[in-house]
Amino acid sequence: MQFGITQSLTDLPSGLTLPVWVAAAARAATQVLCGQTFENPQSLQIPGRDQALGVPVQSAAPLQEGEQALAISRCDPGPGLDLTRDLEIWVQARWGQSQTGCLETDWLEIVPGEGIGRKGREGDLCASDFARRLLEANLRDLVSPGQCLQLEVVFPRGRELAQRTSNAAFGVVDGLALIGTQAEVQSSASPDQLRASLDALQLIAGASDFRGSLTLVIGENGLDLAHQLGLADQQPLLKTGNWIGPLLVASAEAGVSNLLLLGYHGKLVKLAGGIFHTHHHLADGRLEVLAAIALQQGLGVDLIKELLGCASMESALQQLEKRDCAEADRVWQAIAQAVEVRSEAYLKRYGAWPMRVGAALFDRQRQLRWTGLTGHSLLARCGLGIHLQGGEAGFDPSLR
After folding, report:
1. What is the three-state SS of 192-212?
2. pLDDT for res 396
3. Using the 8-state DSSP alphabet, how is residue 124 labeled?
4. Quick one: which of 93, 94, 322, 374 could link to 358 by a disulfide (CB 3.0–4.6 Å)?
């Protein structure tokens, strides 16, 4: 594989995503398996980029008399707060067993080892398309036609760290998901990320075929669900992680007339409490918002105290549903409505625009579960809808 000029990691303004560190260890292990000399740093080809990227690997060595090889890298996500910092990554490489040889399409098998996220207990490796393409791009030249390469990826602390994420809320179990859509880490709380989102918004709103409707999706899971629902076929999508307040104002200024907020309930609940920069390192208050709205909806004080004592929003939702599913739905519909009310109030601080803001929240199974009144209307315009238990009874304006 010829790369030409290689960019050093120290030249980058930010750190690298988890798939890059896995790919570096995978290539190092496969080189040793092929009998080649261990190289450090590894020169990686990044899909869609001409210049290679030099990524350090800690070590690599043959195992079982050269029948296998192991390489270790250590994740560096850059200066931001990230739980994968210094995460040790092990990749063990071996040739697959095949009497007939591997087809061109199945020459690479990735086995999720300890600490790697799976889709359900017996599910496949949870990896993004970028992660798979990155591995294929950097290993294909080391695997002869007809050979099968098997990689086992292990994150020794992955299971422990996954407990501090919302992975389980989206069906990812046993460890950290191998996700990421690009090589460099982009902090969703950084001003650069806001600038990129604002630039993307201007491109959308300035397009000749823009009709005034936009879906603002929160995070990768929101984006994935929006595509599954077919929302991308109905109106443009803009993904963000934080900076929701500035994007609301910018959307109104850009001429958006109907804005649908689509996100996981654990993120959007903050907006119901008036928290519009939602990065968890800067502002949380989710359980307190839930408790306030639960009180407005008539829940008992003892139950509200239990909710405040929950370790996470997910456990609070489970506690509510265990007691009374209909009551839980009523609370969450009220939260969705509060998101809409608070969003419109936020806009009025900065100007008078006719933009409608609707909210649609999904649960840990990525099922659309709750909307505000405007969100219900905007979904209907796209040919989508959910059943609202109790009619409009749950839509009580909240947290003024």
Report:
1. HHHHHHHHHHHHHHHCCCCCC
2. 45
3. -
4. 374
CA distance 117 to 245: 32
Look up the pTM and report it. 0.64
Contact 55, 73 (CB under 8 A): yes
Tokens of 336: 């969705």
Map residue 374 onto helix, strand or coil.
helix
Sign of the C-alpha dihedral, residues 161, 167, 171, 172?
Answer: negative
- Which tokens go with 304? 């509200």
Domains of the chain, by residue range, sit at 6-176, 191-381
Any idea of the CA torsion for 139, 144, 147, 151, to the nearest 10 degrees? -20
CA angle 108, 111, 21 (to 5 degrees): 80
- pLDDT tens-place string over residues 210-228: 999 999 998 777 887 888 8
Per-residue tokens: 61: 């060595």
Is 53 within 8 Å of 20 (Cβ atoms)? yes
Q: Which CATH architecture has domain 6-176?
A: 2-Layer Sandwich (3.30)
CA–CA separation, 215 vs 188, rounded Å? 18
Q: Determine the Cα angle at 225 with ends 19 and 395, to 5°.
A: 135
Beta carbons of 147 and 187 less than 8 angstroms apart: no
Q: Are 256 and 205 in contact (CB under 8 A)?
A: yes
Location of structure tokens 């191998």: 178
**pLDDT band, very low/low/confident/very high, at 392 (cuts 50, 70, 90):** very low
Asked if 177 contacts 117 with a C-beta cutoff of 8 angstroms, the reply is yes
Condensed to tens digits (0 to 9), the pLDDT of residues 198-208 reads 999 999 999 99
Tell me how many degrees the CA angle 32-38-43 measures, rounded to the nearest 5.
105
User: Which string of b and e fits 362-386 if b means at least 16 CB within 10 Å?
Assistant: bbbebebbbbbbbbbebbeebebeb
Q: Which helix (H) or strand (E) holds 290?
A: helix 286-296
Are 43 and 6 spatial neighbours (Cβ–Cβ below 8 Å)?
Answer: yes
Q: How far is CA 312 from the centre of its chain?
A: 18
